[in-house]
Amino acid sequence: METKTLLALAEEFGSPLYVYDAAKILHQYARLQKTFMKVENLRIHYAVKALSNISVLKLLKKAGAGLDTVSIEEVQLGLLAGFSPDKIIYTPNGVSMEEIEQVAALGVQINIDNLSILEQFGAKHPETPVCIRINPHVMAGGNSNISVGHIDSKFGISIHQMPHLLRIAQNTGMHINGIHMHTGSDILDIEVFLYAAEILFEAATHFKELEFLDFGSGFKVPYKKDDIETDVEELGRKLTKRFNAFCSEYGRNLTLAFEPGKFLVSEAGYFMAKVNVVKQTTSTVFAGIDSGFNHLIRPMFYGSEHYIENISNPGGKERFYSVVGYICETDTFAGNRRIAEIKEGDILCFRNAGAYCFSMSSNYNSRVRPAEVLWHNGKGYLIRQRETLDDIIRNQVILEF
């Protein structure tokens, strides 16, 4: 999106503000479709946890996507957005048996990642098709918090527990219709992904009635100028060839499934905040903005880097700033970062703010969460109103003393 457009939206809707470019989301979706166009049956499930605004879900539904969900609430959001249950996969972790049964009753594809729940569910509902989430014990991802396929991860059923898994399936007579894995986010080495895929292919040979293989996602997107990213086109060529060969060996065409979240929406997102104060100390120049980790926690939580631009002075002389928030804890978005000269009242724009940004926001310090806008066909549409104090206290039960 152009700088002048973003600045105009910040002026129209106020700050802080999230803006999402619908064209970029659709471009990324089409890119993934094209990459795997030689696979006969391809299914792309958008990972709702990345950005769960219903209008964004509806946009992807129109493009033909399904949904990857991790909670019953995400399932309900998908249904509200118009997705049919058969277009939704549910991959929880550590949830109750009751929640899994509630989701199954809605007709959604269940994906189970532990032996205890698998045995309980199979004994009670052997007729309900179930996908199995395998832990391939492959370390992948850009941060320990988002690497989920290694041996110490809480996610998935260990590949070394396959004999136990098979015994449960046999004893319960349950129908296993899919095998799933997700090694982590921000994967750069596609050979690691392909190595894990071989583990999934081997696991799949133990099940004779499979309908799909789900390879998760984790494709890295660029976070700054000249940043590296996952070569999804090369991955597509190699995995397509191997997947089609496996289908021939298996005896029928299976569906190849992915669950991209960040890949689809990260680069489409922009977060804008106003500079409240420029503060010179003995060693640092701070640019303090009207936001904090209550609105964008990824830099503090994951150490992620978001490119920051002063869109009020895009051609200005660059100086070094530490961009910080207004929360009463250290909430540094960027330290000693080169940014065009900043004055109080300027609007700073954070790039790659589409994934895991608003969805991880909170009301910490009793601050309201920002508005969200979708830029679609040359117009900005408000898709979430800015919160007010009423939203913060709505569910509180106030006692009188």
UniProtKB/TrEMBL annotation:
It catalyses: meso-2,6-diaminopimelate + H(+) = L-lysine + CO2. Homodimer. Substrate binds at residues 298, 302, 329, 356. It is an enzyme of class 4 (lyase). It holds the Pfam family Orn_Arg_deC_N. Keywords: Amino-acid biosynthesis, Decarboxylase, Lyase, Lysine biosynthesis, Pyridoxal phosphate. The keyword Lyase applies. SUPFAM superfamilies: Alanine racemase C-terminal domain-like, PLP-binding barrel. InterPro entries: Ala_racemase/Decarboxylase_C (IPR009006), DAP_deCOOHase_LysA (IPR002986), De-COase2_C (IPR022643), De-COase2_N (IPR022644), De-COase2_pyr-phos_BS (IPR022653), Orn/DAP/Arg_de-COase (IPR000183), PLP-binding_barrel (IPR029066). Its cofactor is pyridoxal 5'-phosphate. Pathway: Amino-acid biosynthesis; L-lysine biosynthesis via DAP pathway; L-lysine from DL-2,6-diaminopimelate: step 1/1. One of its GO terms (molecular function) is diaminopimelate decarboxylase activity. The active site is at 328 (proton donor). HAMAP family: LysA. Belongs to the Orn/Lys/Arg decarboxylase class-II family. LysA subfamily. This is Diaminopimelate decarboxylase. Pyridoxal 5'-phosphate binds at residues 218, 356. The modification N6-(pyridoxal phosphate)lysine is found at residue 49. NCBIfam families: lysA. Specifically catalyzes the decarboxylation of meso-diaminopimelate (meso-DAP) to L-lysine. The keyword Cell inner membrane does not apply. Residues 18-354 form the Orn/DAP/Arg decarboxylase 2 C-terminal domain. Its EC number is 4.1.1.20. Residues 23-266 form the Orn/DAP/Arg decarboxylase 2 N-terminal domain. PROSITE patterns: ODR_DC_2_1. GO terms for biological process: lysine biosynthetic process via diaminopimelate.
